[in-house]
Amino acid sequence: MVPVRCAMCGTHGAHLCDNCRKDLEALPLVRRSERSEAPNIAALGAYTGPLRAAVLSLKFRNRKSAATLLGYVLGKKLHVSVDAVIPVPLHPSRLLARGFNQAHFIGIGVASALNAPLVCEALVRVKATHAQSSLGLTERTVNVGNAFAPAPDAYRLNQTPVMLVDDVVTTGATITACACALRCAGVKDVYGSALAIKM
């Protein structure tokens, strides 16, 4: 059996060690203000150091338990009332290749902390896009343009506030594209959240 290590510092014994958890709980959220069609976005911190290591670990090493724990810490700090927590979806081909969606497991933690339902059938990724990390800043918006569409549950959230959840935000293009799709379905207020923001 592989020993459990902290996703942030690598210490043996827990998916998120007490020291890293306390550090995250003590730090203020990093925020990006609403701009154009992009919603307000809040994150645990900048995409550097141990938090960057954790995000990469979630994405490429299938750290579902760590994702949920980090999502819970994030959710406890958001202090907002929403009717649904919506993870940014992967395209079916990417989901099949990876086997899981890290945003889904982060969303489980956020939803638990906010005492709101996790709604996974509100958005669908209709276009297989290139990995955002492989593109320049200006190419990212084009890459995710029309990549998302509202799914059936989005229409049941008409006129309600919702929280979008992703692992990392760079330009905000992905969360903006998701927010636009939800607003097309009549969702009233869309907030964005992530574990980390690339500054």
Through-space gap between termini: 38 Å
The number of distinct helices, counting runs of at least 4 residues, comes to 8
Question: Under the CATH scheme, which architecture would be assigned?
Answer: 3-Layer(aba) Sandwich
Q: From the helix content, strand content and strand pairing, which structural class follows?
A: alpha/beta
Strand order of the largest sheet: 1-2-7-6-3
Largest sheet: 5 strands, mixed
Percentage of residues in strands: 15-25%
Q: What is the helix content?
A: 40-55%
DSSP E strands, number: 7
Can you write the helix and strand succession as a string? HEEHHEHHEHEHEHE
CATH fold-level topology: Rossmann fold
Per the principal axes of the C-alpha atoms, what is the gross shape? globular
Low-confidence runs (pLDDT<50, min 5 residues)? none
CATH class: Alpha Beta
Number of domains: 1
